[in-house]
């Protein structure tokens, strides 16, 4: 019905957060050594991964809803929002399926971040061992 | 080739579709494994269209970002 709205809302938040973190990193980078900055993937870039997954997934899921006639080009844009009973159903679906979609994507991203951090730590350990 | 955006788009969509399928399974149970032929055909076309849309979004993102500056260089060449 409208479950894609929840991940799309998270995508908006992560995009804004990624821009804010990037600005902060650029300011901090001026004082830090260049070598340290190159060996580690910036957190803003990692947040960008989550944004891309959420935006892409939401866009394709929105297309699926258009395909099934659940999203229209005219007000109220969602067919389920036209009467109170189906609107309640829609909100219930957003609270269950929508939230779970956002949580699953975020969990996959957390896994990616954990793996990349482990690779970064291993690379840093190899660098210090080499001298 | 810069395919990371495409990977993220399809990965995000796949996870969301999986959750959608889990909820459908919870309500319909084994019935979702025996769809009607018309439903299957409709889902096949939907899948193809969604894949194509993912590619279109990827190409649009590449054209906007122009990571290697190919488009910019071509436009500047035409100006000269």
Describe the overall structure.
The complex is a heterodimer of chains A (about 130) and B (about 80). Chain A has one domain (about 5-130). Chain A contains four helices and no strands. By secondary structure, chain A is mainly α. With about 80 residues, chain B is mainly alpha-helical. Chain B has one domain. In chain B, helix 1 (about 5-30) packs antiparallel against helix 2 (about 35-65).
Descriptive tags:
heterodimer, A: 131 residues, mainly alpha, 79% helix, B: 80 residues, 3 helices, elongated
- Counting structural domains of chain B, the number is 1
For the biggest sheet of chain B, the summary is:
none
Poorly predicted parts of chain B? none
How big a fraction of the residues of chain A is strand? under 5%
Main sheet makeup of chain A: none
- Residues in helices of chain A, as a percent range: over 70%
Write the layout of secondary structure elements.
The complex is a heterodimer of chains A (131) and B (80).
Chain A: H1 5-29, H2 34-39, H3 43-67, H4 84-130
Helix pairs in contact in A: 1-3, 1-4, 3-4
Chain B: H1 4-28, H2 37-65, H3 70-79
Helix pairs in contact in B: 1-2
Care to give the gist of this entry?
The complex is a heterodimer of chains A (131) and B (80). Chain A has 131 residues and is mainly alpha-helical. Chain A contains four helices and no strands.
């Amino acid at each position: 019905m409208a479950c894609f709205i929840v991940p799309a809302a998270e995508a908006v938040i992560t995009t804004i957060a990624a821009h804010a973190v990037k600005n902060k990193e650029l300011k901090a980078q001026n004082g830090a050594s260049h070598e340290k900055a190159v060996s580690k993937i910036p957190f803003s870039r990692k947040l960008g991964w989550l944004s891309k997954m959420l935006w892409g997934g939401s866009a394709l899921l929105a297309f699926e809803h258009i395909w099934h006639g659940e999203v229209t080009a005219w007000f109220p844009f969602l067919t389920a929002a036209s009467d109170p009973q189906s609107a309640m159903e829609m909100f219930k679906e957003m609270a269950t399926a929508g939230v779970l979609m956002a949580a699953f994507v975020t969990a996959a991203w957390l896994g990616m971040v954990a793996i990349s951090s482990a690779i970064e730590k291993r690379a840093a350990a190899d660098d210090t061992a080499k001298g | 080739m810069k395919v990371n955006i495409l990977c993220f788009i399809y990965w995000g969509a796949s996870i969301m579709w999986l959750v959608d399928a889990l909820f459908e399974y919870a309500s319909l149970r084994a019935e979702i494994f025996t769809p009607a032929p018309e439903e299957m055909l409709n889902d096949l076309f939907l899948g193809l269209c969604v894949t194509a849309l993912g590619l279109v979004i990827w190409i649009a993102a590449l054209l906007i970002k122009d990571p290697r500056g190919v488009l910019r260089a071509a436009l500047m060449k035409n100006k000269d």
